[in-house]
Amino acid sequence: MKNLRILKLCLEELYNGGYVETTVNEDVVMDEISVGSDNIWSFLLLSGYLKVTGKFKNDDEEFIYILAIPNKEIKTLYKDIIKKWFKEGFISNDFTNMLKALVIGEVQLFEEYFAEYILKSFSYFDVSGENPERGYHAFILGMLVSLSSTHEIASNRESGLGRYDVSLLPKDTSKPGIIMEFKSLRIKSKTTLEEGLEKALNQVNKKLYDTELKNRGISNIIKLDLVFKGKEVMIKQYVEIPNM
Fold first, then answer.
1. How many CB atoms are located within 10 Å of the residue 214 CB?
2. 3 state SS of 220
3. pTM for the full model?
4. Are 8 and 20 contacting, i.e. CB atoms less than 8 angstroms apart?
5. How many CB atoms lie within 10 A of CB 220?
6. pLDDT higher than 70, residue 89
7. pLDDT at position 79, please?
8. DSSP code string of 45-99
């Protein structure tokens, strides 16, 4: 929990007009964003939640970047989403049980916990902008930070025929790997969550997003489509039918 407390303090510093000094690996930022105690800043920078205000070299000749919140709109998101990752989520038994259900493949139980969690943690503003998927994406990545000791959490990484949204790569390859793909529906849309899932058309499977996991020797792979509409969510697991 020490790293989470440090992250909380850094986020509060950013929200109060401060800044974070950190190294940023540009290759990681563009191609393989893993969420952990350090490289969460790379994700936030890539997704527009932080901006570079300066840089300098340290004693080891590494570039240190000075990162800050770019504008008032993003500052509101920090208040309404990111701070809640720590204020509400990481101290909750239900939160712990939710992540446990996810990593062991109890998808229905995970969906029940997750639906309740976003009801408590999302505001209408969080997902009512022009790019609501970015809000869901940031929320889920922040939620998964606490799994970084057992999993590599990657985002927007190339695999197969495209880029998946989020993947959990277990450090123990005998454990399940998880791929998550998000779809969002406008709050005022007449399309239902069920119809949204049908339109998703199992993108995880069709684009071979499990290639990276398989290349790492992970054979047990959980493929999930998540469709959001405001504070509502529905999750569908793609299950392959063996050839007879």
1. 14
2. coil
3. 0.61
4. no
5. 13
6. no
7. 64
8. HHTTS-EEEEEEE-TTS-EEEEEE--SHHHHHHIIIIIHHIIIIITT-HHHHHHH
**Residue predicted with more confidence, 179 or 42:** 179
Q: Which two tokens stand for residue 13?
A: 């510093």
**Two tokens, residue 69:** 């919140």
Position 106, amino acid: E
CB atoms within 10 A of CB 190: 7
What is the reported pLDDT for 197? 83
* 21 neighbors 65 (Cβ within 8 angstroms): yes
Tell me the two tokens of residue 97: 């049980």
Q: 115, 109 in Cβ contact below 8 A?
A: no
Backbone angles phi, psi at 73, to 5 degrees: -60, -45
> How far apart are the C-alpha atoms of 148 and 241, rounded to whole Å?
31
C-alpha span between 121 and 114 (Å, rounded): 10
| Contact call for residues 29 and 69 (beta carbons, < 8 A) | no
| CA dist list (Å): 128 to 27, 85, 133 | 31, 19, 10
